[in-house]
C-alpha cells in the first residue's frame, strides 16, 4: 500500500510539518525523541522522504488497532 508519494528524497522540517499538518516544533520533537530519523548538515535538519512514509504508515497502523 502506498500512502503518499513524495517527489523529493530529502525534506526539510518545514516540508514535513506542512505535509503532516504539524508545527515545526512538533517535527523537532519527533526528531529529538527518535520517532523521525533525521540528520543535520551544516545548515539544517534533513529528513529522508522514506522516513516520513514509514512514520505515516506506523501512525495508520496504530490508529487502525485502536478502532
Q: Which descriptors would you attach to this protein?
A:
67 residues, alpha+beta, Multidrug-efflux Transporter Regulator, Chain: A, Domain 2, three-stranded antiparallel beta sheet
What does it look like?
- This protein has 67 residues and is an alpha+beta fold.
- It has one domain: Multidrug-efflux Transporter Regulator, Chain: A, Domain 2, CATH 1.10.1660.
- The chain has 3 helices and 3 strands; from the N terminus they run E-H-H-E-E-H.
- The chain has helices at 13-20, 24-32, 49-66; strands at residues 10-12, 39-40, 45-48.
- A hairpin with a 4-residue loop joins strand 2 and strand 3.
- Helix 1 (13-20) crosses helix 2.
- The model has no long low-confidence stretch (mean pLDDT 89).
Query: How large is the count of helical segments?
Result: 3
Look at the structure and give the mean pLDDT. 89
Largest sheet: 3 strands, antiparallel
Number of domains: 1
The number of E-state strands comes to: 3
Quaternary state of this entry equals single chain
Query: What would the CATH topology be?
Result: Multidrug-efflux Transporter Regulator, Chain: A, Domain 2
Q: What is the N-to-C succession of helices and strands?
A: EHHEEH
CA radius of gyration: 12 Å
Give the spatial strand order of the biggest sheet.
1-3-2
Q: How would you sum up the global shape?
A: globular
Quickly give the structural class.
alpha+beta
Given as residue ranges, the uncertain stretches (5+ residues, pLDDT < 50) are: none
Which percent band covers the strand fraction? 5-15%
Amino acid at each position: 500500500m502506498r500512502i503518499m508519494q513524495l517527489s523529493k528524497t530529502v525534506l526539510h522540517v518545514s516540508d514535513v510539518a506542512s505535509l503532516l499538518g504539524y508545527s515545526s516544533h512538533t517535527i523537532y520533537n519527533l526528531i529529538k525523541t527518535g520517532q523521525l530519523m533525521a540528520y543535520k548538515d551544516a545548515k539544517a535538519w534533513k529528513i529522508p522522504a522514506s522516513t516520513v512514509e514509514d512514520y505515516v504508515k506506523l501512525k495508520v497502523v496504530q490508529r487502525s488497532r485502536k478502532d
